[in-house]
Amino acid sequence: xxxxxxxxxxxxxxxxxxxxxxxxxxxxxxxxxxxxxxxxxxxxxxxxxxxxxxxxxxxxxxxxxxxxxxxxxxxxxxxxxxxxxxxxxxxxxxxxxxxxxxxxxxxxxxxxxxxxxxxxxxxxxxxxxxxxxxxxxxxxxxxxxxxxxxxxxxxxxxxxxxxxxxxxxxxxxxxxxxxxxxxxxxxxxxxxxxxxxxxxxxxxxxxxxxxxxxxxxxxxxxxxxxxxxxxxxxxxxxxxxxxxxxxxxxxxxxxxxxxxxxxxxxxxxxxxxxxxxxxxxxxxxxxxxxxxxxxxxxxxxxxxxxxxxxxxxxxxxxxxxxxxxxxxxxxxxxxxxxxxxxxxxxxxxxxxxxxxxxxxxxxxxxxxxxxxxxxxxxxxxxxxxxxxxxxxxxxxxxxxxxxxxxxxxxxxxxxxxxxxxxxxxxxxxxxxxxxxx
Length: 437
Known about the structure:
- There is one protein chain.
- The protein is of the alpha+beta class.
- The protein has three domains: 161 residues, Serine Threonine Protein Phosphatase 5, Tetratricopeptide repeat (Alpha Horseshoe); 136 residues, no CATH class; 136 residues.
- The strands form two sheets. It has a 13-stranded antiparallel β-sheet. A two-stranded antiparallel ribbon has the order 2-3.
- A hairpin with a 4-residue loop joins strand 12 and strand 13.
């Protein structure tokens, strides 16, 4: 696939539409002192003299109250100048960073500007930030762009999928929790004994525990190309969750390896051998349990707005001390992401899981459903939320916690609300506030 040809195709569209307001939005005329410079810069861009255009636009773009058309023309010229052959990498990245900054600022105020989002996606693509480029390209497709632009965007998405090599994820958060152990706060419980309900008082230490914890995670993956459609995936993840009360601490270390098959331009499947160690409580002398098994992942782009995904895993879990919990663990889930518009995203999933340890009363099966939505609002705010229901059925006799000979059934409801401002960033990260109930 000819990557420079793809970039040039979108550049031609951009130059042809440079005088057209994004999404036909009405703009106020630029200040008189900038009009002459803009007219000259526009001519230079059409003549593909991007360096000269930048000399005119850069002072205008840095002046207070910069006009939207000035910012867009400056970003476009910077992206095209960065594509100059034999340009030193440092200069190329500096130009792309300038373009990304101005496009990002425009979308903070007005996230519906499709033309601006298209150029931001192209800037991320040229810089090799494929994850960000893919997200913005998909949002462009959700805005029903002209067929020629949509065709080129799909080619960019296919190119990024084929060239993907390294990926890295890292993050951290504070975890204020009023019930760390997810325990009951009931002071008294009633247990059926001899056909009667006897009242028992629980000790204080058995009740809910509150506190503020810290969570951190890091993970990465490398995909080695085996052929045009086959990749070898090798990756791992490390996550930590620590509280002042160390009995609730948790550390997870996992790894995976296996092939990835690119099926056509819209589908892919991976088969991975995966392993997991989990430590709980204080100390890392011995893992609480370890597991090894297989995981299958699939993804299919149904259309411009909808992506389907599926995952199935089965692992054999072994505990170091509580061996009665040893046994296979199975989990299956199917989900979909739908972009209702470039600024509104919905997601939903359903899942089923099963644990079959040696002890009958610990055997369980569960069903779950989750729905969520995210919206990018003007002035930089992004808000969203999700809700999930999980039904868990335990086997065996759970007396005295249930009636004689009865099993146990749990229903868990989880609701999450979050918000952040895209204009507030720290080294590329945008802090997010979440409330989980």
